[in-house]
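Following up on my earlier thread - several people asked me to post the actual chain instead of describing it. Fair enough. Here it is, all 222 residues.
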Amino acid sequence: MIEGFISDYFIFVPEFDALLDINNISEINRIIENKHKYELEVEKNIEDKRIDLFIWQGVLVRKISQAKNMVMNTIMHETYNKFYQRIKSCRNLKELQHLENEIFSVYSDFVIYYSEVTDNYTLNRILKHIHMNIESYISLQDISEDLNLSKPYISLVFKKHMGLTVMDYIMNLKINRAKTFLTTTTQSIMEISQILGFHDSSHFGKTFKKITGVTAREYRKR
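Reply from S.P.:
Thanks for posting it. Predicted structure:
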């Protein structure tokens, strides 16, 4: 028994739950390795260990199922059923510990895959929203509300895959659109700034020069 729990203590530890959320494989493996040493020292009951693994499967499946990817969830269910039968067939503590390592390794792979799939899907939604609304005022708050995603998650996914912030991307896109207006239309700089959703022509002018190195008027003359 560890820390007063008959079953695996780490099932109830918030810190371990956080490690699963961020998929910190190295730290999870370190904890499992130490846990296995302790179990061997105290000669942990085989049936208690078996129950622990059943519980862990439930915890891991619940986390991964949040991805709501029907195809991959079907594969995950097949994996769960196979592990369930293998847990039942293990004959000693060593076999159960070896299986525990395999379970965490396989489910960690699921988490990594799901996070990439989810990120790509989310990124595509964000980009589509930006491009469809580029000729209007766009804020991170607007994107968050329209797509029902948190601002920190949007920022994290976008920076991770695009290499720049959401607002930097939007401003660059707006200025590229402004270049087209400046060279193909006779609309005034004020009109262009209004079309592209800037607060005023002054804000537009400062942004344009910051990104291009020249003023909008100079760019049009060129």
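Residues 9-115 form one domain. That should answer part of your original question.
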